[in-house]
Amino acid sequence: MALGSDLIDMFANRKGTVGIVGLGYVGLPLALRFSDSGVRVVGFDIDAQKVTKLMAGESYIAHFPHESVKTALQQGFRATTNFAEVRDCDALILCVPTPLTAHREPDLSFIIQTVDALVPHLRSGHVVSLESTTYPGTTEEIVRPRIESTGLRVGHDVFLVYSPEREDPGNARFSTRSIPKIVGGSTPMCLKVGMAVYQTAIDQLVPMSSTRAAEMTKLLENIHRSVNIGLVNEMKIVADKMGVDIFEVIDAAATKPFGFTAFYPGPGLGGHCIPIDPFYLTWKAREYGVNTRFIELAGEVNSSMPEWIVEKLNDALNSQKKSINGSRILILGIAYKKNVDDMRESPAVAIMEILRTRGAEISYSDPHVPVFPKMREHRFELTSVDLNPKSLESFDAIVLTTNHDAFNYEEISRHARLIVDSRGVYRGGGQNIVKA
């Protein structure tokens, strides 16, 4: 176990080199944080454009300014597409996507391809940590056998860890450093070494008994949010039928100092976690003969919200003797949450797809997304519309899907013919406001 002790001492003295594999919304913040803590960092990504931008001191994530990248470069950070350089690192942290297949089953291809790319370069003394959200058992069943196929023994020669990411893009209250970090090891020594690595950059660590427990913890966090959002989305539909303002009800319930946590409804779920991660557990649970009905029902409710929003729009247009077909519709905000540029799984895009199918002429406005990005499943050749009295008046309806702080909501309501509000921005209502 001397090798493990040596690694613990190395990172305690901040002499180890950390390699971050995957420089997206999880990997880049982590790389910047390790660099800021005085650790040498090498970032790996298969996207040459990302690497070029980073080496030029440019950030491609809106809430991380260019200066943060320039500072990291001055501190020794560098990015590369050359995976052979992992041999020069002591810890390798994998931050790659875990999407779903077309059949809503886990897609571990990014994890498998990344590990397979690392395997030829692994050596004795490496720490390997997986941060991608996945089902319990992935670290032991998928990652560990590939590492040990080299002849290296986990817990003796190489130290394997699962430490799920907990990033919340755009949240000013919590940063990579201040969010407590879950750490689970394949062996007790793996846990100790993994803790030593993360202690250099994170204020509080939460050790777990196993990688499976750590994997399950991450899923529980996201399922908790998915189920509660599903509940309030269903409550919203009931309240709407009864002529009750669900936002007023939630705000009132939140005054109870115990036993209630406020969750708010919206147009559906977005982001890289909440719409996807629950299905990782439902899929794995079937292996054990368990039917996760509660989780799947919440997923059904949340995924049905874009259709419900469109029907509210349809009813509102019908009341004005118009139809969706041929109407000019502006989608207000297309990022999945307020004040970020993150488009992953955005429900606004699902609404745009439905409206396009039904013959609407679609535009959007989002100060954080000036050009509609290239997405695997969605194609829109659009740029963000500048909001002014003339442009607002030109649309038959505006669907408020993301409540960015940058929007002038008073001006929008003053000049819009019709607003379908899915975020509860216009609590007081109005003649041209439809609550959805």
In short:
The chain has helices at residues 2-12, 27-36, 48-55, 66-74, 109-118, 138-148, 188-199, 211-242, 246-253, 277-287, 293-303, 305-319, 347-357, 389-393, 409-415; strands at 17-21, 40-44, 78-80, 91-94, 127-130, 159-162, 181-185, 205-208, 328-332, 361-365, 397-400, 419-421, 433-435.
The CA-CA distance between the termini, in Å, is 60 Å
* Fraction in helix: 25-40%
* Helix/sheet category: alpha/beta
Question: Approximately what portion of the residues adopt beta-strand conformation?
Answer: 5-15%
In sequence order, what are the helices and strands, one letter per element? HEHEHHEEHEHEEHEHHHHHEHEHEHEE
Beta strand count:
13
Instruction: Describe the main β-sheet briefly.
Output: 8 strands, mixed
User: What low-confidence regions span 5 or more consecutive residues with pLDDT below 50?
Assistant: none
Supply the key terms.
436 residues; Rossmann fold
